[in-house]
Structure formats: structure tokens, C-alpha cells
Design a protein that fits this description.
The strands form 2 sheets. The chain has a 7-stranded parallel sheet with strand order 3-2-1-4-5-6-9, with helices on both faces. The protein has a single domain, classed as NAD(P)-binding Rossmann-like Domain (Rossmann fold, 3-Layer(aba) Sandwich), CATH 3.40.50. 44% of the residues lie in helices and 17% in strands. The longest helix has 29 residues. It is globular.
């Protein structure tokens, strides 16, 4: 018996990183996983794994989300993962950077929750997990102005949904990782003017001496998706190796 047997889970940004690790972990625990991403070629790799279906989805497009939600008869867990990390202070954040980040990191979650929450309310049960970050209202982080702002908004959104629908059987929590070893992180390191220094800067703040793995974060997501966490809602759950201490 898996910890998620019989549960239907929809998640975004499943082609790589934490999203991919979570999709695999959910399926391993017996869930029926509907994994979405805008990256069709990478997403397609998940089709070879039992229990996972894939669907190309741009979570910044309301019409695509609404059409997708109409195709899903029932779901037990919605996991909003999609996001973007902008590097810079407020003076280095142009309006287009602000708009793109808030659109992908916050508005997409608003659209996904608004589309899928009515199905959960009809069932009188459902779990929503949102991807936030320690770089948010939890901790001010250098060169993460709009990213930290957006992830603080995700925490606020999470608590609001949890408070509004607690009596209708809905739980809503968010995951707040520190620095996670993902393809996205490596891309950002390589794109920096001095990749070696960028890597050194990331490692210097790791009190445990290493980065988190995507699989470690995925295991926390399995717990939040399972009935084991039935008494948890409205929480911003930190998994950062002590970075926020």
C-alpha cells in the first residue's frame, strides 16, 4: 500500500527539478499523477513512468488552465510549483522583470487554484500545496527583490485560502525550501559573470555544508499530500538546512 494510493494529483513545472522529483515520488506512493509543464520535450520523459500522465500547459495562460481543468473530473491534490528566480535589487528590477515574475510566481497559482478549487469543494475535500521559498517574508535575501516579494505573496495566498476554506474540507500549505540542487540553479550559476564565485556564494551560506536535493523536498511534498498531514493547514513549511536560523 502506498501513502498516496487512490489520490489524483495535478502539478505544474514537472519537467525538471523539484516538480519532476515530486511527480516521481507521488507516483511511487500510488498516486495517479497528471504532470504539466510548458517544456514538452522534457515533460515527455515522464511518460515512461507508471502512474504519470503528462500535459503541456502554460500556467500564465488563463484559457489553457480553464480548458485543462474542464478535462479533470476529480483531483485530490493540486501542487503549484512553477516559478522563476530573478537576480537583482529593486534598482536592477525593470518593470518587465517585475511583471513577468509576479505573473509566473503568483498569478499562475491564483489561476490554478481558482480553476480547481470548485472541484475540491464539490468533493468536500482537497489539498493544495504551493511552492514558496525561504527567500520571502521568512528571510530577506540579497539580490532577490522581486523573487522574495513574489514568494512572500505565495505565503499570504496560502494562508488566505487555508483560512477561507478550512470548514469545507480544504487544506492549503506551502513549501519553503532554501537552495536546492536543480537544473535551474545550475543554469543561473553558469549564466552569472563569474560562475565559480556564484557557486562559492551559494555554498558559503549552507550551514549543513551542502545543497538540498530535489528528492528531499519531494519527500516533504509527499507528506503534505498524504493523509498523514491531515491536521496541517495554512503552514509555511521550511526545508532549508538551517539557512534561516
Amino acid at each position: 500500500m502506498g501513502r498516496l494510493d487512490g489520490k489524483v494529483i495535478v502539478l505544474t513545472a514537472a519537467a525538471q527539478g523539484i516538480g519532476r522529483a515530486a511527480a516521481l515520488a507521488f507516483a511511487k506512493e500510488g498516486a495517479k499523477v497528471i504532470a504539466t509543464d510548458i517544456n514538452e520535450s522534457k515533460l515527455r520523459e515522464l511518460n515512461e513512468h507508471a502512474g504519470i500522465q503528462t500535459r503541456v500547459l502554460d500556467v500564465t495562460k488563463k484559457d489553457q488552465i480553464d480548458k485543462f481543468s474542464e478535462e479533470i473530473e476529480r483531483l485530490d491534490v493540486l501542487f503549484n510549483v512553477a516559478g522563476f528566480v530573478h537576480h537583482g535589487t529593486i534598482l536592477e528590477c525593470e518593470e518587465k522583470d517585475w511583471d513577468f515574475t509576479m505573473n509566473l510566481n503568483v498569478r499562475s497559482m491564483y489561476l490554478m487554484i481558482k480553476a480547481f478549487l470548485p472541484k475540491m469543494l464539490a468533493q468536500k475535500s482537497g489539498t493544495i500545496i504551493n511552492m514558496s521559498s525561504v527567500a520571502s517574508s521568512i528571510k530577506g535575501t540579497v539580490n532577490r527583490c522581486v523573487y522574495g516579494t513574489s514568494k512572500a505573496a505565495v505565503i499570504g495566498l496560502t494562508k488566505s485560502v487555508a483560512a477561507d476554506f478550512i470548514h469545507q474540507g480544504i487544506r492549503c500549505n506551502c513549501v519553503c525550501p532554501g537552495t536546492v540542487d536543480t537544473p535551474s540553479l545550475h543554469d543561473r550559476i553558469q549564466a552569472s559573470p563569474d560562475p565559480q564565485k556564484a557557486l562559492s556564494d551559494f555554498m558559503s551560506r549552507q550551514k549543513t555544508g551542502r545543497l538540498a536535493t530535489a528528492e528531499e523536498v519531494a519527500l516533504l511534498c509527499v507528506y503534505l499530500a498524504s493523509d498523514e498531514s491531515a491536521y496541517m493547514t495554512g503552514n509555511d513549511v521550511i526545508i532549508d538546512g538551517g539557512w534561516s536560523l
